[in-house]
Design goal:
By secondary structure, the chain is α/β, with parallel strands linked by helices. The protein is built from 13 helices and eight strands. An eight-stranded mixed β-sheet has the order 2-1-4-3-5-6-7-8, sandwiched between helices. Strand 5, helix 4 and strand 6 form a beta-alpha-beta unit.
Length: 307
């Protein structure tokens, strides 16, 4: 499988399992990977909270960023397989230290974004014509926004933020950058994530007074695709993407565990994803219905709540 594994050590990118910085070997590894797979886009994959590269129990490269067929953890859906790495794209699995408290991980995400920006800059220099897209979950969305803000030139194409855990001020900073002005963002969320949005808003501040979290913010350049809204689901189904309806009241991972999500993300980040992204953006512009199923599912809280 055409999969590159890179981690962040502070603001420095290193090859997974080594301490080799870009300037002393990782650049060569990137060049070899790009040469072996000429043409298809590179898709950056960024995990969220609770992972730490190299940790025996919590390494993302053995979990959602692995190319495994199966895994004992139900939340370990393989992103590389779901996105068609090796078929539609060249995958870059990006790990960073997201263990510790939410405040520690939130702060480290900024540094990880700087490391990712260095990786993107290197790819752009080695292969200027290569498309680069990205997908990140939870605090992984914060990493991507920090990378966008740090990139001095347009470098990323389509950027999918899944249940993004960050604040609107950081979104505004990213969108005002040279890279952010050209990137095409999409925020995928659901009422199932409402509790986690409320917890982030109540526990983690950005340093800016009255700064809403992404799940409570609205911005014309961040279309919001809601996986709990019947209108949005019907629009996707009419385009050939049938997603399952919510079956839990609370789930932070539904944006990639929900059956049908990965065929959509694979198409959006694939070679012909630009036109699809425009269509999905039009669907996302439809105002959600007042009663969101993620808040009003007639299901018991205990058995159906995600752990």
């Amino acid at each position: 499988m055409a999969l590159i594994r890179i981690d962040a050590t502070g603001a420095t990118p290193v090859a997974h399992g080594t301490a080799t910085p870009v300037a002393a070997g990782l650049e060569r590894a990137l060049n070899e990977a790009l040469t072996r797979a000429p043409g298809p886009p590179v898709v950056l994959m960024v995990h969220g909270f609770r992972f730490r590269p190299g940790d025996p129990l919590h390494c993302p490269h053995r979990h959602i960023l692995s190319d495994h067929d199966s895994h004992p953890c139900r939340k370990a859906a393989s992103w590389p397989r779901g996105l068609g790495v090796g078929e539609d794209c060249l995958g870059l699995a990006f790990g960073w230290d997201a263990r510790g408290t939410i405040w520690q991980a939130y702060d480290r995400a900024e540094q990880a974004g700087l490391a990712l920006a260095r990786v993107v800059t290197t790819i752009r220099r080695l292969d200027p014509g290569r498309e680069i897209h990205a997908i990140g979950h939870s605090l992984g969305a914060r990493v991507l926004l920090a990378a966008l803000a740090a990139l001095p030139v347009p470098a990323l194409g389509r950027v999918l933020l899944l249940a993004g855990a960050d604040h609107a001020s950081h979104l505004h900073r990213a969108l005002a950058s040279p890279a952010g002005r050209r990137a095409r963002l999409l925020h995928v969320t659901s009422g199932e994530n409402l509790l986690f949005d409320m917890m982030l808003a109540g526990l983690v501040g950005s340093g800016t007074l009255g700064d809403p979290v992404l799940g409570q913010a609205r911005h014309p350049d961040l279309p919001e695709l809601r996986l709990d809204d019947p209108q949005h689901l019907a629009g996707l189904a009419a385009m050939g993407f049938s997603l399952a309806r919510p079956d839990r009241r609370i789930c932070h991972w539904s944006t990639y565990l929900r059956p049908g999500t990965f065929p959509l993300y694979r198409a959006l980040t694939g070679p012909r994803g630009a036109a699809l992204h425009a269509e999905v953006t039009r669907i996302a512009a439809r105002r959600p219905l007042p009663a969101r199923t993620g808040r009003a599912l007639p299901l018991p809280w205990g058995a159906n709540a995600s752990s």
